[in-house]
Amino acid sequence: MKCRVCRGPAVIDIRRHNANFCQEHFLRLCRDQVTKTIAEFDMIKPDDRVLVAVSGGKDSLAVWDLLLDLGYHADGLYLGLGIGDYSDTSGDYARAYATDRGVRLIEVDLPTEHGFDIPTGARAVKRAPCSACGLSKRHLFDKAAHDGGYDVVVTGHNLDDEAAVLFGNTLRWQTDYLGRQLPVLPARHGFPKKVKPLVRLGEREMAAYCVLKGIDYIVEECPMAVGNKHIGYKEALNALEAESPGTKHTFYFGFLARAAERFHEEVEAERDALLSCQRCGAPTSNEVCQFCRLSERAAGAQPVKLGAKRSASPA
Ligand code: AMP
Ligand code: FES
Ligand code: ZN
Ligand code: ZN
């Protein structure tokens, strides 16, 4: 196996590029793909203050590392979601990276600052944990960006994530979600700009990136997500990709080029109808935002012990 660029010994093959790469040229490929994505979708300006949402997993640590290496002013944001040992361990990885690189990591702990954790909150509102978690994360990302005066929020969503979400949204024709599934959401109506610079890179590449750069990350998946539909969509797409490398890329980038625009109108109409939450001031379509409703319901609820039977089934 020889590197496509220098013909030296390769450390990774990327079937959808039909090529192998040595360490140096693989790391360069990752940087080039991120640079290209940032330019193509006008994601980040050189002087922007960037907030990277870091979960302690490979993707978000890799995107933080890539942005720092590319010279961006990027701070990290870690949210403690109160998911037992999983949260404790993932926080340790995020902190270790920040200390190692001497960069700033902002921490927000949901149980300490808002009085509830994801397992308890999800049960209180009878939602699947990943759904309560997703809405809490979005709310806390927006709030941290607003409070800290950041220009843009970065997440570590990669090509595998985006293709799987697109697959799920298409199977159910969730046109409102399809209209919002873009690599860039511009700042509007009190929401910060949000970008996904890893959409050209896959999960396997991000794991290799971290190993080659010596970045330790939490390998374990979130225990609340086990068996959810998203994981099934990923497996289905992996089977297709194994037969025809490049399927995920064609599916996702084809959607962006030829279909995404068709769903914009619905999202625009939704955004124009936004109000300010009466409790916290966040943009919302109701008088009280979903996060405030979640925290109010969770406040009186019995705490859920992880490992105990849950009443809401996973998404
Ligand atoms: P997930 O929704 O777990 O697939 O994560 C998608 C992205 O959200 C990650 O790549 C991170 O950028 C961000 N993220 C997930 N969990 C956290 C967390 N606990 N704190 C900060 N950012 C997170
Ligand atoms: Fe949110 Fe698992 S990280 S439910
Ligand atoms: Zn090489
Ligand atoms: Zn609110």
Structure write-up:
With 315 residues, this protein is an alpha/beta fold. The protein is 50% helix and 11% strand. The protein has 13 helices and ten strands. The strands form three sheets. Strands 5-4-3-6-8-7 form a six-stranded mixed β-sheet, with helices on both faces. It has a two-stranded antiparallel ribbon with strand order 1-2. Strands 9-10 form a two-stranded antiparallel ribbon. A hairpin with a 7-residue loop joins strand 7 (184-185) and strand 8 (193-195). Helix 5 crosses helix 6 (129-148) and helix 7 packs across helix 10 (229-243). The N and C termini lie far apart (41 Å). Mean pLDDT is 93; it is low at 309-315. Bound molecules: adenosine monophosphate, FE2/S2 (inorganic) cluster and zinc ion (ZN) (2 copies). Adenosine monophosphate binds at residues 53-55, 59-60, 77-79, 81, 137, 155-157, 161.
